[in-house]
Amino acid sequence: MMKLECRGLTAGYRELVVISNVSLTITQGSVTCIIGPNGAGKSTLLKALMGLIRIHEGDIVIDEQSLMPVRTERMAQLGIGYVPQLSNVFPTLTVAENLEIGGYARGGSSMDDVLELFQVLKGVLRKPAGKLSGGQQTMVAIGRALMGNPDFLLVDEPTAGLSPAIAGTLWGYLKALAGRGMGIGVVEQNVRLALTNSNDAYLLASGSIRLHEQAADLAAREDLEGLFLEAEPQEQN
Known about the structure:
Layout: E1 3-13, E2 16-27, E3 31-35, H1 42-49, E4 54-62, E5 65-66, H2 72-77, E6 80-83, H3 95-101, H4 111-117, H5 134-146, E7 152-156, H6 164-179, E8 183-187, H7 191-197, E9 200-205, E10 208-214, H8 215-219, H9 224-231
């Protein structure tokens, strides 16, 4: 199985460093969740992996092949898909048009493949994506990334603002993709939901990895709540 790794990654926005010396591995066929308090740098980490922000130090590799210098279009061509939390659809374009755009970077997947997974989208293909529910928009965003036939999929806060039922459904889709051999990396605020549905877990706090365990082992820890309290940024007096 191929692995997507970052090693000693330090990155941020221009000169501002947000994550420091972060090392993480995402393996094909499994789900890796990245959890932590607000402001920990979780979304920044995904953006760094996609070349969307400045990398100051470190390396990103797929099976020992360095991808540096990172360029977003190259990452997509090499098989890394990315689903941002916000502004993740083109609202005035139809669902079908949104999906078609995803095939330009790499191709290899058909719309039928995507609709087989997200069957609810079959009835709204001609509808503007901005008119869909939040859950459906997230499906469109994931589907667009899948149109690029990625080996790895990075998803930022897929369940934000969704009902527990829809959130559980979306996680079911992500697990299904991992079952097909894709490597899934997910940033998630719903810690219990993430740990229940993941194989591997990283706790990120103040821009650094504080803990790495099997998701089931971390979920079983009696001090899990305490770990998060310790990871919360402290107010300065």
